[in-house]
Amino acid sequence: MPVSVADLLAEPKLQLRALTSHCHQPDRQIGWVATTELPDPLPFLRAGELVMTTGMLARDDAEWRRLVRRLAELPVAGLCFGTGLVHQEVPPTVVQAAEQAGLALLGSPVEVPFVQISHWVADQIFAERYDTVRTVVALQDQLVQELLSGGGLPGLLRRVHRQLGAGAVAVVEPDGRVLATHPARTRWNRADEGGRPPVAAAAYLPIAVDGVPVAWLCTQRATPRQDVLSFAANILGLEVARHQAVLTGRRELLGQVLEDVLHRTISESDARRRLAAHGLTLDGACAVVVARVGGDPDRLRKLPWTLGPLLERTGDRLPTALIDDTAMVVVPEGTDAMAGARTVAAHLSALDPQVRVGVSEARRGVSGLRMGYFEARQAAQAGPGVHRAVPLSITGLLLGNLDLPLRELGHTVLAPLLRHDEAHHAELVATLRSYLAHDCAPAATATDLVLHRNSLRYRLQLIERLSGRDLDRLADRTELWLALMALDGGPTSAPRED
Predict the structure, then answer these.
(1) CATH number for the domain including 295?
(2) How far apart are CA 135 and CA 144, in angstroms?
(3) Which of 21, 169, 340, 370 falls between 20 and 30 A from 185, CA-CA?
């Protein structure tokens, strides 16, 4: 409890006397002590202080009444008047003015120095603050132990619920899914106001990972113990980040094995052995889901895609690997690959709303896993959303080869045309693309480009001269077509959407 004027009077060593009826009021709490003999001490005082004076400065009755009134208006916690040095008794005018103004007035004998009173108040204040800090630290330690010692998220929410007394508490994902709540049967209504978490809550704080809010810690009623709520949200964020780092490590380890499989740097028997260590036996036909996000690939590693498995400490439900900016999920036989792909897309949309997800056909063995990756990768190139792959073409497989710098090679082949288009605002690359797409038929190409056949003939001759290729030769046509495909980042055949 805070130190009050009544506490001072109750301490026999201080020998203080109550001189007004206001001294025993419970709201007379003391924040600090100030000793002053200034003519006008008000500019140097704060509300809640105990002001001590010996009345050394001579004042007439009007000046005493004015000072007492101003002290009461501030308001100070009380006025302690020392006697036996300047005044043998507190002046009656001061007593009368303090009673009328509602000011607590204390009499202090000369035998008790002001410094003794100051020390006593300071000791009490710091002792109270120390007890508060010790209580908070003990509570924080209890929350941490509850989270780490087997109680997990349910144990933490149970402890927070007990300490806050603010009704039910819950952890809620950004989409409104309640991950955990205590009491367990609590129903949470949807929020209907902007800027609030997805459920209606009186108090709520974000649970953040790497500075990004990934969930909300909510209470049904407001709480004065915001410190407890804030600490609980912070340690939940740290716990999520810790498990996310562990999970990311597992995903990257599997990703390294899968990269070796995709690059054929290990034998099939070694691939099976290493994949089995990660729970992948390849005994049945497996489908592959490939998801690609834009922006910084580190977001795939630092930010949780979903909180549930992290807080439940279960990890990925399906084998999941990280390869550069790509998440690869292996879906075993008997599991709905499209449903899994939609779940992956929903999770990763928090990182990138334009996430691209491809789903392969189910195949057996190491070669089937390799083929499924390139097939799903080709499907993901169709654009945002979930796409089921069409049979992988030789072109698609070639363009998906991780070992070949095809985009760079395509740019090199087409560089003279690209420079000419940029310098002259021409359309040689578009003309070449249309010409090859229409099987090198001049009439169909001219119609597609809304171009006179003589103008088309001139453009094709210019393309041949700048590129050094002969459009009548199949090998040169194929090279230019592959260069266009590589420049575009994938084959023209678009995977079908589910």
Answers:
(1) 3.30.70.270
(2) 14
(3) 340
**Tell me, what amino acid is at 379?**
A
CA distances from 201 to 175, 214, 369, 426 (A): 15, 17, 47, 60
Question: Which domain does 111 fall in, by range?
Answer: 5-123
pLDDT in tens, 265-318: 888 889 889 988 888 888 889 999 999 888 777 888 888 877 766 666 667 788
Which two structure tokens, joined as six digits, stand for 164? 């806050």
Asked if the structure places residue 32 within a domain, the reply is yes
Q: Is 244 exposed, middle or buried (0-12, 13-18, 19+ CB in 10 A)?
A: buried
State which of 71, 90, 123 marks the end of a domain.
123
Do residues 48 and 101 both lie within one domain? yes
Are 297 and 392 part of one and the same domain? yes
- Tens of pLDDT, residue by residue over 322-350, are 988 889 999 988 889 999 889 888 888 87
- Answer whether residue 460 is part of any domain: yes
